[in-house]
């Protein structure tokens, strides 16, 4: 047996030794290597910046963002804000950004709904249902997204008629190769009363749900909250509008010459992109949901049925709330993927951020500035999504007692 | 040790990268080929066949530069570029010269850090419509959907033309030309617009060329020409005078077939073009070498004409199949705009 306290006598501590060089001191070496890495990094960075500056100067160009206020001169096929060829480059980029956000938000909502349904279907005891879900997932997620966008674009365009023979629904919605044209709602003064009624209905529903929960806790009686409140939520804005004297009228699409004038148009490029993004991302979300549900131990469903819950209730009240903890983190990265994948819009000519940025870059020649803007904007979009999902995750976390 | 090596390597590469930017001519001579930016496929200008052999007016220009600099017209490597990529590719040094039916405009000349070396083809923007649409003039296109390519002057002229004529239109723009064509043929839009030469070239690819017609209006000036980086005067001169050499050769009647006989010509202009040595009165040779000023060998123009041809030959070879007449692209003395300063 060796006595530990005796060891220092035989082996001297490295730092204390006067004969040892500082070169072999692990502490100094640790610091030194870190300082060297930082210096190299700084040197590399300054080299990149300096080189860029020198090369720009050689090409007689200067770095700056004042080009953003110049007139763009090109049009975009669809925009959420007022935009024409007289607008500035900056506005073109904003219009593109809004289109990206529109596609990302719609894509996330529908992909989540489809993903959850398919994910649950895949675990169904019914062979046909489970098989269909498996087939869909394995088929779609193994084909490159770009290919699917092209396919959907062709599928959307091919079978549709020209604008003169457009399919008409109720004489006010028209479907043709040039897109879906719908009546455009116009709100007059007093329309805020409708909005007010909607907000009141939402708050009412929230209070109602709270009371119903309390009642269930006290008496065990279940109130069908959604059955009652959903019709009320849907009807309330109309009641409000009716009381305000119906300050709402629609601009109906009208076929004049080559195109429908007035009305709202969803261009086929956007439809194809959205369908492709939703169908593709839903497969990944479905797999995430399935893995989440399977991560909940089997004992939980046995315990639920022992308590007399039906399979649907067990899923809704016991399994899914626990599965959510597993689902949310990977779900967040699926949302980020969807947002970033939307930049493939350029392939079918939908004017998203990438498209608008690319065109601005090409017309203004400010490659470095535009790429910089695009990177910063995509990064902020992703960080915002991630922050939201982190907040949601901490809300859904199991509360440990 | 490894770190030191890395440091040394990155320094060397950093320096060479900077140097490459400065002297394209030396760079091209050193690597032995010209890296030429071309289109992704436009019949008559730059188009690859199944075995990736490129042909066209723009391609022949690349070959002419290679013939002048390296003495071998085959020493060209092609980079197919989309309209959006082209200027960035040139700015970054990925290509030596951009010969890709690109329009010379003021902003491109002054803000992109690039220089246009000449106008190898005078073009103008036109419209194509399906015959069954029954449109006879571009002024009847109010409200139409128009297919075009993003990042082009076409996109800008289109907006200007409809604005100036107080008409509305809906743009349908794609990054790649083939997607524009597909959308037009699919009926996504009523009108296809690009440079008129492009319209004539593309209609040949259609299943039924007779079902489409080009409208009479030309709505813009589209001077197309080769582009180089600004601030590299030596290379700019080489590219510019390659173009002028093809014009001067045509003007002087020097063709790829008769160039060898022409070396014996007594015409001083031809002697200067082909760097033919002349006799001094005392019987000694006098140099007539204009390649020296370009940093090239004396056979620079001989090689261009011998291996690629003069401007007229290049035009015939590539654009006759599109049934495009010389028109504005005839020589100045034949009523056109093609004019080269003299070699002297």
Plain-language structure description:
The complex is a heterodimer of chains A (401) and B (344). Chain A is α+β, with helices and mostly antiparallel strands and 401 residues long. Chain A is built from twelve helices and eight strands. Chain A has a four-stranded antiparallel β-sheet. In chain A, a hairpin with a 2-residue loop joins strand 2 (173-176) and strand 3. In chain A, helix 5 (145-157) crosses helix 8, helix 6 runs antiparallel to helix 7 (225-243) and helix 9 (298-306) packs antiparallel against helix 10 (311-341). Chain A starts with 6 loop residues before the first helix and ends in a 5-residue tail after the last helix. In chain A, 29% of the residues are buried. Chain B has 344 residues and is α/β, with parallel strands linked by helices. Helix content of chain B is 38%, strand content 17%. Chain B contains 13 helices and 16 strands. In chain B, the strands form six sheets. Chain B has a five-stranded mixed β-sheet with strand order 10-9-11-8-12, with helices on both faces. Chain B has a three-stranded parallel β-sheet with strand order 4-1-5. A two-stranded antiparallel ribbon of chain B has the order 2-3. In chain B, helix 9 crosses helix 12 (300-307). At the A-B interface, helix 2 and helix 11 of A face helix 1, helix 4, helix 5, helix 6 and strand 10 of B.
């Amino acid at each position: 047996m060796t006595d530990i306290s005796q060891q220092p006598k035989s082996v001297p501590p490295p730092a204390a030794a006067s004969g040892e060089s500082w070169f072999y001191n692990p502490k100094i070496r640790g610091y030194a290597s870190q300082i060297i890495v930082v210096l190299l990094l700084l040197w590399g960075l300054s080299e990149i910046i300096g080189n860029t500056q020198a090369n720009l100067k050689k090409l007689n160009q200067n770095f700056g963002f004042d080009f953003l206020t110049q007139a763009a001169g090109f049009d975009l096929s669809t925009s959420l804000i007022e935009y024409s060829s007289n607008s500035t480059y900056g506005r073109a980029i904003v219009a593109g950004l809004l289109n990206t956000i529109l596609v990302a938000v719609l894509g996330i909502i529908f992909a989540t709904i489809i993903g959850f349904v398919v994910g649950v279907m895949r675990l169904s005891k019914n062979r046909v249902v489970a098989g269909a879900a498996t087939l869909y997932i394995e088929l779609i997620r193994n084909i490159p997204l770009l290919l699917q966008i092209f396919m959907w674009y062709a599928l959307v365009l091919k079978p549709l008629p020209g604008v003169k023979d457009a399919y008409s629904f109720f004489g006010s919605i028209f479907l043709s190769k040039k897109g879906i044209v719908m009546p455009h709602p116009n709100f007059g003064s007093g329309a805020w009363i409708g909005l007010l009624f909607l907000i009141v209905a939402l708050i009412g529903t929230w209070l109602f749900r709270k009371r119903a929960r309390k009642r269930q806790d006290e008496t065990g009686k279940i109130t069908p909250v959604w059955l009652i409140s959903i019709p009320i939520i849907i009807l309330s804005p109309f009641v409000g509008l009716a009381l305000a004297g119906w300050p709402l009228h629609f601009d109906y699409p009208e076929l004049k010459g080559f195109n429908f004038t007035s009305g709202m148009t969803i261009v086929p490029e956007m439809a194809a992109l959205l369908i492709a993004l939703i169908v593709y991302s839903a497969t990944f979300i479905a797999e995430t949901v399935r893995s989440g549900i399977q991560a909940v131990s089997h004992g939980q469903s046995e315990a639920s049925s022992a308590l007399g819950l039906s399979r649907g209730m067990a899923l809704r009240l016991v399994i899914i709330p626990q599965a959510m903890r597993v689902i949310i983190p990977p779900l967040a990265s699926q949302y980020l993927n969807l947002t970033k994948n939307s930049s493939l819009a350029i392939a079918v000519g939908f004017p998203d951020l990438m498209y608008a940025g690319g065109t601005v870059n090409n017309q203004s020649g400010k490659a470095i500035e535009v790429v910089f803007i695009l990177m910063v904007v995509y990064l902020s979009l992703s960080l915002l999504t991630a922050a939201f999902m982190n907040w949601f995750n901490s809300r859904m976390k199991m509360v440990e007692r | 040790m490894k770190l030191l090596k890395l440091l040394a390597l990155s320094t060397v590469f950093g320096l060479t990268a900077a140097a490459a930017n400065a002297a394209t001519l030396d760079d091209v001579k050193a690597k032995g080929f010209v890296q030429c930016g071309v289109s992704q496929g436009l019949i008559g200008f730059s188009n690859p066949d199944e075995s990736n052999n490129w042909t066209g007016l723009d391609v022949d220009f690349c070959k002419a530069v290679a013939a002048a600099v390296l003495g071998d017209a085959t020493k060209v490597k092609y980079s197919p570029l989309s309209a959006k990529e082209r200027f960035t590719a040139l700015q970054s040094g990925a290509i030596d010269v951009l010969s890709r039916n690109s329009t010379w405009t003021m902003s491109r000349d002054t803000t992109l850090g690039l220089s246009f070396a000449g106008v190898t083809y005078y073009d103008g923007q036109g419209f194509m419509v399906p015959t069954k649409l029954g449109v006879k003039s571009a002024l009847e296109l109010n409200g139409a959907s128009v297919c075009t390519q993003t990042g082009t002057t076409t996109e800008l002229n289109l907006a200007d033309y409809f604005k100036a004529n107080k008409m509305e239109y809906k743009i349908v723009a794609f990054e790649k030309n083939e997607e524009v064509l597909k959308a037009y043929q699919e009926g996504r839009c009523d009108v296809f617009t690009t440079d008129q030469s492009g319209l004539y070239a593309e209609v040949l690819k259609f299943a039924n060329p007779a079902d489409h017609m080009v409208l009479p209006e030309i709505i813009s000036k589209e001077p197309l020409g080769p582009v180089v980086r600004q601030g590299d005067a030596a290379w700019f001169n080489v590219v510019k005078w390659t173009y002028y050499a093809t014009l001067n050769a045509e003007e002087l009647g020097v063709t790829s077939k008769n160039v060898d006989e022409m070396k014996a010509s007594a015409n001083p202009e031809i002697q200067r073009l082909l760097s033919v040595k002349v006799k001094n009165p005392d019987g000694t040779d006098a140099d007539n070498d204009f390649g020296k000023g370009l940093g090239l060998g004396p056979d620079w123009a001989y090689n261009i004409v011998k291996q690629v041809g003069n401007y007229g030959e290049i035009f015939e070879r590539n654009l006759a199949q599109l049934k495009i007449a010389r028109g504005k692209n005839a020589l100045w003395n034949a009523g056109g705009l093609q004019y080269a300063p003299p070699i002297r």
